[in-house]
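To: structure desk
From: M.T.
Subject: fold request, one chain
Message: Could you run this one when you get a chance? Sequence is below, nothing fancy, just the single chain.
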Amino acid sequence: MRRAAGIARKLRGPSIASHDRDRARAYSTVIAPGGLEIASISVISLSDHLPFGARIRGVTREKLSDPSVRGQIASVFEDRGLLVFEDVEPSGEMQLELAGVFGPLRHHAMESVSRVEIGPGISFTELAARPGEGNVFEIDGRPLAGWTPWHWDACYAPEIYRAGLLRALEIPPEGGLTGFADGVQLHGAISPELRARFEELDILYQVGLMMMNQRFGMPGSYRVIHVPPSTRDMLRECEGAPRAIHPAIWRRSSGEKVLHVSPWQAAGIEGHEDPEGDALLESLCQEIYAKMRPYWHCWKPTDMLIWDNWRFIHSVSGHDPVHSRRVHRATIDGDYGLGRPEVSGNP
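Reply: Done. Structure tokens follow.
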């Protein structure tokens, strides 16, 4: 049996040839899962203009039974941080098998989040926006359902999970894109003055500081059109919830530094919860928006996508409220070990 070799060759963005065919040829591995059958899994750059991410084609459940293929895909993820799997089997079984490449599953940190059971003791988080049911906000004059501002998940908890693997089951005809911005790119892009100021600062997060309670990085034009009672009840339940503390900047094992600040659910700068500190954090949020080079994913039913939650912030563009959007997320367990709860006596 021939073994996979080299699927995790390092992709370095703009240096890769511009045509998909040439890139796929340069970054593909021929494997033989068994007998004389030969199959190809290709790994190409997400974009010639982005320093992160990769597209992977040709993945099947059969090929994922090869431990070397699983290991190589995991290695590409560690390097590139965002993987788009194209033309995969559009099923929960395939999503579960692919999620297992990256680690064990865990439940979402918020117990109130909707879940879908896919097996004994196994569930995915369901993120749905249906006409007449969910939140609708007006952003820059447009009513949008499913709009979610830039954030990283579970920032309000001391332990943050490793990654999320997404699959779209209902896709609106327009909008409903998921955006990702790389904290490694952001660390190098923001002004040296802000980078130096936040190098040793920690950020406080609280679970209820979202939607109409968000304090930092709000869009210039924002209006609540509809928020269902379930959302208001959830926000009331979050009042007084404990806060968590995470560094604004941290260093990966690779040596790269990551700017990892979530405007959504941010409460302020630890030890600097005053007008000056709030203005400083707001200036960082606006600098993030100005300097990010995001990738916006337009969904197809045969796509799956995984992102590194320790490295990226993400957002949802929103869509016309007359349409539905439904996504299932497999949450990958793990923690980077740098968060901590706020305790009595903290500033």
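Reply (cont.): Residues 1-39 have pLDDT under 50 and may be disordered. Let me know if you need anything else for the meeting.
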